[in-house]
Structures are given as structure tokens and as C-alpha cells.
Design goal:
The chain is of the alpha/beta class and about 100 residues long. The protein has one domain: Glutaredoxin (3-Layer(aba) Sandwich), CATH 3.40.30. It has 4 helices and 5 strands. It has a 5-stranded mixed β-sheet with strand order 1-3-2-4-5. A hairpin with a 2-residue loop joins strand 4 and strand 5. It is globular and about 30 Å long.
Amino acid sequence: MALEITDQNISTLLQTEKPVVIDFWAVWCGPCRMIAPIIDEMAQTYGDRAVIGKVNVDENMEISSKYGIRNIPTVIFVKNGELVDKVVGAVPKATLINKLEALL
């Protein structure tokens, strides 16, 4: 299961040396529900080598604003505290896996 990332815990999570993958989503978003199982699967598969989490944009507007999230789902990839890649919309599992693998 992916970590729940909030405005309160984001700064601690970004201090890791591991790559961080963050899925920005909302309960009412159909495409978000399509990629949710992929994000959870990635958390199980890569949990020892990367931080995989989810941000509910309706409850955590500070993080969403910081990363300029305008459309959801948006999945961002962070390495050493810096945004290095971003995917907007429901994309195939292989796309997300390949972007994460490139950071490992």
C-alpha cells in the first residue's frame, strides 16, 4: 500500500536518498481510480528501494500548489529533493515503472 503523504509529512519524506514517487489524486477522479492499483503495486514491489506515496489534492492543497498540480492524476518523480519527472493523466503501468527504474 502506498504511503499517505500530507502537507505535514512531505518534508520528512523528501529527505530520503531514495527516489520518491507521488501520485496526486482525489476521491471523485475516475482516472485516479484507474492508476491507484498500479501505484499500490509499485509500493509493494519497490518499497525497499523507493518511497511511493499518494497525496489527496482536496486535503493537501499546500503540496499540490508547490508542485503546480493542475490536473489529476499527476504522478511526480523526485530525486534528492528535486522534481525530475512528471506524468499527467492515466498512463500505462509500463510508463510509470520505466520512469521509476530510470531513477534507481
